[in-house]
Amino acid sequence: EVQLVESGGALVQPGGSLRLSCVASGFTFSSHDMHWVRQVTGKGLEWVSIIGIAGDTYYADSVKGRFTASRENGKNSLYLEMNNLRVGDTAVYYCVSLAVTDDAGFDVWGQGTMVTVSS
Amino acid sequence: QSALPQPRSVSGSPGQSVTISCTGTSRDVGGYDYVSWYQQHPGKVPKLIIYDVNNRPSGVPDRFSGSKSGNTASLTISGLQAEDEADYYCCSYAGLYVVFGEGTKVTVL
After folding, report:
1. Which of A86, A89, A94 is nearest to A21 (CA)?
2. Closest alpha carbon to A42 in B40, B35, B39, B62
3. What is the pLDDT of residue A118?
4. What is the Cα Rg of chain A in Å?
5. What is the mean pLDDT of the segment spanning B88-101?
6. Phi, psi of A20 (to 5 degrees)
7. Cα–Cα distances in Å, from A3 out to A61, A108, A109, A112, B48?
8. How far apart are CA A33 and CA A51, in angstroms?
9. In this model, does residue B96 exceed pLDDT 90?
10. Contact assessment for residue A51 and residue A95, using Cβ atoms and an 8 Å cutoff
11. How many Å is the Cα radius of gyration of chain B?
12. Digit-coded pLDDT (tens) for A11-59
């Protein structure tokens, strides 16, 4: 079964840091660009970052300079290091392989992990 | 990197057709044939219903169809059914990044 499982979400104070993890199974993780997408409760989807199969990364302006995506293909794992967190970063964070950067409609979402930034 | 404008809500009676627009620019929707559409029911993970502008994944009913003209992509739901009531998001490749639409709530009257 093709699957993505995120972990690491937590309650953190403004200015704090957090590391999210995502483990892939059921597909060749190393052959796919991977994304982080977030969603504030009751609001829309927001693209956060992409990491290519070669490890190249790009970020939304809202997180650039604060978030860092990385991957360990040998462990089928994707990570998101989040620093200097703000209240506005509160959201469910999804690990995703998006169809817009993949072939033949390959599209897989994790169940999401909740990040709450609050004092 | 602003969200792509979509109508906030559309509605229709069972059996009717509704169309949702997703307005981009030549740097995203108009520049690539990599537009997807997602359906999201409350409390659920988004589900892919259209990819590469007008392709349906296996298992998605053919009442869902996608198209693109210039910088605007569209999703049409023909023969609206009660279970189609959900939020719908477009998603476009934009070179070095990806952008989602603002989302549209579809209500089945």
Report:
1. A94
2. B40
3. 97
4. 14
5. 96
6. -95, 150
7. 29, 7, 8, 12, 15
8. 6
9. no
10. no
11. 13
12. 999 999 999 999 999 999 999 999 999 999 999 999 999 999 999 999 9
Tokens of B50: 């259209």
> Would you call B47 exposed, middle or buried from its count of C-beta atoms within 10 A (0-12, 13-18, 19+)?
middle
Question: Do B51 and A105 lie within an 8 Å CB cutoff?
Answer: yes
Q: Rounded to an integer, what distance in angstroms lies between the CA atom of residue B88 and that of residue B44? A: 12
Which positions in chain B have a beta carbon within 8 angstroms of at least one beta carbon in chain A?
A: 1, 3, 34-36, 38, 40, 45-46, 48, 51-52, 55, 57, 87, 89, 91-93, 96-103
Residue in B42, B45, B27, B12 with CA at minimum distance from that of residue B98: B27
pLDDT tens per residue, range B11-23: 999 999 999 999 9
Q: What is the DSSP letter of B20?
A: E
pLDDT in tens, B25-73: 999 999 999 999 999 999 999 999 999 999 999 999 999 999 999 999 9
Structure tokens at A71: 């991957």
Interface contact A98-B91, CB threshold 8 A: yes
Burial zone of B10 (CB within 10 Å; 0-12 exposed, 13-18 middle, 19+ buried): middle
* Pairing of the two strands A3-7 and A57-59: unpaired
| Cα gap B79→B63, rounded to integer Å | 6
Report whether B90 contacts B4 (CB < 8 A).
yes
Q: How far apart are CA B19 and CA B80, in angstroms?
A: 11
> How wide is the angle at C-alpha B32 spanned by C-alphas A63 and B80, nearest 5°?
90
- The CA distance from A62 to the nearest CA of chain B, in Å, is 9
